[in-house]
Amino acid sequence: MIRVDEIAHKIFELTGVNFVANTRKRKETDIRAFFCYLLKDKYEFTQEEINEELNDLGIKRNRSNVSHSISKIKTMVKNGIKERYLIDLFI
Description:
The protein has one domain. 68% of the residues lie in helices and 0% in strands. The protein has five helices and no strands. The termini are far apart.
């Protein structure tokens, strides 16, 4: 079974960014969006499951927030324009 809290902790270790904090700072919101995308794309969570997991982590979001986050990162990856930016998030 996948432990979402462990994935979140690993992302925190890699980035040093507390993306579960209640903030709208760009770096935190982008990493939060990437987290949603990762759960959807790699681990095949449904948007409802992602929303539940976020709420369990203390990130209060609704399904439309999750959908927007996933869509945002999909667009970034598809366009390739922001690929370097995604890498920079983890450096």
